[in-house]
Design a protein that fits this description.
Elements (H helix, E strand, L loop, with lengths): L8 E6 L5 E6 L3 E6 L7 E7 L6 E8 L4 E7 L3 E5 L13 E2 L5
């Protein structure tokens, strides 16, 4: 599988039960691709998840009913996404991790 992301990837994660892969990019974007053997991956979701900050981490959390993706950036901001119909998403639970030092 080869995909042109348009920016440097920092992280990727494969969905635990569906043929979907998520990528977090240096430009703050979060992309989801559906893939299958013998065909090109199809981008099914794209959002600038973290503005000017890099999207440093992506992880799937499979509830069995909805695809849920968590992403994190340089500033410690974590966002949880439920892509509605894989076309539009709003962060379900944005939070900022603060340093105790």
């Amino acid at each position: 599988m080869e995909v042109s992301l348009g920016a440097i990837p920092f992280d990727l994660d494969f969905h635990p039960s569906s043929p979907i892969v998520a990528s977090g990019l240096i430009n703050g974007d979060l992309h989801l691709y559906r893939y299958s053997v013998g065909s090109r991956p199809e981008r099914v979701f794209e959002i600038n998840a973290h503005g000017e900050e890099s999207c440093r981490a992506v992880r799937f959390a499979d509830s069995g009913k909805k695809t849920t993706v968590a992403s994190g950036d340089d500033e410690g901001c974590i966002k949880v996404w439920i892509p509605d119909s894989m076309l539009v998403a709003t962060p379900l639970m944005p939070m900022k991790i603060m340093s105790l030092t």
